[in-house]
Inverse folding.
């Protein structure tokens, strides 16, 4: 870690920050089997930290990466609060775009730079340290507490649903708190009451049995790379709507109060989207503001596409196959399985002649929506006011945390989404970062939240 004199841009390295740096140094990349040992070591570090705080802590093996559970002594008559987070992180590629080692955290310009700093180690550890601070100051917590931390969120939580079923009684709770979402702008506390769902797939188009000379065979044999371009183009109308038949059938319309509220939220204007993204222009479904498109409208996205020669210069080849990786962000009341069926029908119907198609399904997750004006929602807003000394805004979140709806389905509890990430946090990208001020606020937020939920 590179240290600097303490000032507004270079905060003093506190013991809490030292613990976060130790947590961030684990390359706990869940998707890469070569890092399986690092993921487990990270889980064991977390287990030891929770045990040192006096919590009863357990490490549960799964078919892939461990689940860590911790709790205080539960007393009758108190509300039970479950805090969820994930200790696994995304890969760091492309590594050459990082300005510092992604697993050697640094503080620059008031931010912590490291993979996982925001997603999700910084946010979840703030909850852990908030509980630790309350225990040191008061000797006990005002609620029955359960921590549930997994190491597979970045690969779709493939084993957590079964774990929840198997441990339903032990994980019974009144409400769940998650800090794995975002704030609309610096200093603006944000309560997210909705998440988009997701479903993913990959399509491979196959033509000849091997690459062909484009002069000898071009014009007589279909080109899979050209075919994949035509297939991808069929997913949208020219104005940006998804062209899959029945795609919008179950979409729940926006409420008038939501559109009115969101039009006043700072940091989410079209100009803000242009500034944060660096895009030359905005584009999307007509009839909606950019924030509405991101928070409450479904999408079809191309995540990767390829085929044929990729090296320097020319190689006049007609490729044997081409591929596209697709994801679809979903909103209430879209069902991932239903949408994937519609996608597969669309791809089969629009597949150009002369090539075969194979569609492979990926991970999915349901959308989530709750009432931000419920008693628990109001408690969360009060805690955000205390932590940030400002009035919170209410939004939905464009990203997906698929396990949140699964929590509701299995545990019967709603989730409070108390995001601490900023729009320019670079999550899933090089130079991921997390403001030290937000880390400190997250510790205060946990302390205030438990007090409010106990009332």
């Amino acid at each position: 870690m590179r240290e600097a004199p303490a000032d507004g841009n270079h905060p003093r390295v506190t013991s809490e920050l030292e613990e976060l740096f130790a947590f961030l140094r684990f390359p706990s990349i869940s998707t890469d089997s070569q890092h399986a040992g690092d993921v487990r070591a990270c889980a064991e570090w977390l287990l030891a930290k929770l045990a040192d705080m006096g919590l009863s802590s357990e490490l549960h093996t799964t078919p892939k990466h461990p689940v860590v559970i911790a709790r205080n002594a539960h007393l009758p008559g108190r509300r039970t609060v479950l805090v969820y987070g994930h200790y696994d992180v995304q890969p760091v590629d492309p590594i050459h775009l990082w300005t510092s080692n992604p697993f050697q955290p640094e503080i620059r310009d008031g931010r912590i730079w490291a993979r996982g700093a925001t997603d999700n180690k910084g946010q979840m550890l703030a909850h852990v340290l908030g509980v630790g601070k309350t225990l040191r100051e008061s000797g006990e917590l005002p609620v029955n507490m359960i921590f549930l931390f997994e190491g597979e969120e970045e690969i779709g939580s493939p084993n957590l649903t079964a774990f929840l079923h198997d441990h339903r009684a032990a994980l019974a709770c009144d409400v769940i708190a998650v800090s794995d979402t975002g704030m609309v702008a610096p200093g603006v506390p944000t309560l997210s009451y909705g998440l988009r769902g997701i479903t993913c797939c990959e399509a491979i188009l196959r033509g000849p049995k091997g690459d062909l000379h484009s002069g000898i065979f071009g014009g007589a044999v279909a080109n899979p790379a050209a075919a994949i371009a035509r297939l991808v183009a069929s997913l949208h109308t020219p104005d940006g709507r998804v062209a899959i038949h029945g795609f919008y059938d179950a979409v729940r319309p926006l409420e008038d109060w939501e559109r009115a509220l969101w039009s006043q939220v700072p940091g989410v204007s079209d100009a803000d989207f242009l500034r944060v993204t660096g895009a030359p222009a905005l584009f999307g479904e007509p009839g909606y503001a950019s924030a509405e498109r991101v928070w409450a409208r479904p999408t079809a996205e191309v995540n990767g596409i390829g085929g044929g020669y990729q090296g320097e210069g020319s190689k006049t080849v007609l490729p044997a196959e081409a591929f596209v990786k697709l994801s679809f962000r979903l909103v209430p009341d879209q069902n991932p399985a239903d949408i994937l069926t519609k996608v597969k029908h669309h791809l089969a119907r629009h597949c150009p002649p002369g090539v075969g198609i194979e569609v492979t399904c990926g991970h999915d997750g349901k959308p989530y929506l709750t009432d931000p004006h419920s008693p628990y929602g109001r408690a969360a807003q009060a805690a955000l006011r205390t932590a940030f000394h400002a009035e919170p805004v209410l939004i939905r979140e464009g990203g997906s945390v698929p396990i949140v709806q699964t929590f509701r389905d299995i545990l019967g509890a709603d989730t409070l989404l108390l995001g601490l990430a900023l729009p320019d946090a670079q999550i899933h990208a090089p130079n991921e970062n997390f403001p030290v001020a937000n880390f400190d606020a997250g510790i205060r937020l946990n302390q205030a939240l438990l007090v409010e939920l106990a009332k």
Q: What stands out?
A: The chain has 13 helices and 18 strands. Residues 251 and 310 are 40 Å apart (CA to CA).
